[in-house]
Amino acid sequence: MASDTIPILDLSWADDPTLKPKLLQQLQSALFDVGFLYIKNHGVDSSTISALTDRLPALFNLREEERAAMSKLNSPHFLGYSGFAEETTLGKQDLREQFDMGTELSVVWRDPSHVVGHNVDGSGNVGSERDFAKMYWRLRGPNQWPSEESVAGFREAFTAYHDAVQDLSYRFVHLIEEAFGIPVGTFDHFFGRDLLPSKDPSTNGTSNSPQAHTFLPPQHRIKLLKYPPSPATPESKQGVGAHKDSSGWLTFLYQVSSLPGLEVLSSSNTWIPAHPIPDTFVVNFGNAFEAATEGAVKATTHRVIAPGPDAETRYSVPFFQGLPLDMTVSEVRGYIPEHVRRMRGSVSGVESEAQSFLDSRWDSLGESQLRKWVRSHRDVAEKWYGREVLEYYTS
Ligand SMILES: O=C(O)CCC(=O)C(=O)O
Ligand SMILES: [Fe+2]
Fold it and tell me: Which tens digits make up the pLDDT trace of 248-265?
């Protein structure tokens, strides 16, 4: 970060023509100089948030057999429960427990050994050009839900939260387009939303313009995270190790309690705390965004320090806005005007992850996502994708 303070943007200014230019200016500086921000007056009802967050203790207190029944090991989509310290970052265990969830979607992957003739797209249409035999399509699929008896109202609360934050994320992307000085709606089709109206009606949306390419609406991912108090003599205090987000385009993080822990790396290589601020989301940018803007907008490095032995349990809920698995970073880059790519700020961070994004082998978002999931959950990867795939992505 160029500045050592994380800005707080008031999204209600977007609805006031006199304040909106100031908001867009703040957003520009947050995008190009800071890489991390809070948003308030974001439009997600506090009752929608609390309906989910109030259920987190009950979810994590499910009997061990019930949690095990929701294990990620059951899911080729890497959706489900991971026990305490089962995930690693930078080769070290993260002292947290989690449920990985996502947009509820059906399976589209077709086992190549069974595919005959045409593909079927997500809407069931035969004849799609999309190759659903590609391995990364297997990441897409349904959640594992707790039973209604165990955590009453969980599925409804999760779904309402997902839908509200998805809507916020789409509104926020429109503001980014305005801050970039590009037409509002330019990125809509990344999310399977309406194409921009074709400038030339004769092409009927089928011209070779980039806008003509439609995608399946992506799967957004949501982590439900619990960081329990760490043991008195922990070898490490790593709640989650230093990283840049690689699960999507933008991240909208809700810090449930008032406990500190989240820290952001500044350009002077010092860790700045990102304390929870009531009624706000923390927003940051993923590796794909950094790669698409050729580093003009940085995916800022952050980490979480585990609560101390006498602290309370910390819960948090990041929402990772998804991107189409069959989209390539080079393709996204085509939508980012040259003037935006030149506006590089001075955010620093762990470069290696973003560099690996620019490796042409992982140019498709699906490949880079699969690689990320394989590397953080090797047991799941080996079970569903096999040893060869595990070795390919981890070597
Ligand atoms: O728990 C938090 O506050 C942040 C978690 C995080 O950065 C992540 O899971 O990517
Ligand atoms: Fe993160």
Answer: 899 999 999 899 999 999
Q: Look up the ipTM and state it.
A: 0.99
Is position 106 within any domain? no
CA of 245, closest atom in ligand 1: 10
For residue 72, the model assigns a pLDDT of 97
How many angstroms is it from 198 CA to the middle of ligand 1? 39
Q: Is residue 40 part of a domain?
A: yes
CATH number at residue 28: 2.60.120.330
**What residues does ligand 1 touch, defined as CB less than 6 Å away?**
223, 225, 240, 245, 253, 255, 262, 302, 304, 316, 318
Out of 88, 98, 262, 321, mutate this one to test ligand 1's pocket (max ligand atoms within 8 Å of CB): namely: 262
Tell how far the Cα of 11 is from the centroid of ligand 2, in angstroms: 22
* CA-225 nearest atom, ligand 1: 1
How many domains, in total, are found in the chain? 1
Ligand 1 atom having least distance to the Cα of 320: 10
Is residue 127 situated within a structural domain? no
* pTM for the full predicted model: 0.91
Within-domain flag for 300 = yes
What is the three-state SS of the chain?
Answer: CCCCCCCEEEHHHHHCCCCHHHHHHHHHHHHHHHCEEEEECCCCCHHHHHHHHCCHHHHHCCCHHHHHHCEHHHCCCCCEEECCCCCEECCEECCCEEEEEECCCCCCCCCCCCCCCCEECCCCCEEECCCCCCHHHHHCCCCCCCCCCCCCCHHHHHHHHHHHHHHHHHHHHHHHHHHHCCCCCCCHHHHCCCCCCCCCHHHCCCCCCHHHCCCCCCCCEEEEEEECCCCCCCCCCEEEEEECCCCCCEEEEEECCCCCCEEEECCCCCEEECCCCCCCEEEEECHHHHHHCCCCCCCCCEEEECCCCCCCCEEEEEEECCCCCCCEHHHHHCCCCHHHHCCCCCCCCCHHHHHHHCCHHHCEHHHHHHHHHHHHCHHHHHHHHCHHHHHHHHC
* pLDDT tens for each residue of 50-97: 999 999 999 999 999 999 999 999 999 999 999 998 888 877 889 999
The per-residue pLDDT of the chain, averaged, comes to: 87
- Atom index in ligand 1 nearest the CA of residue 303 equals 7
Q: In which domain, by residue range, is 189 found?
A: 8-59+146-352
| 149 Cα–ligand 2 center, Å | 32
Of all ligands present, the nearest one to the C-alpha of 300 is 2
179-228 pLDDT, tens per residue? 999 999 999 988 987 654 544 434 333 333 444 467 899 999 999 999 99
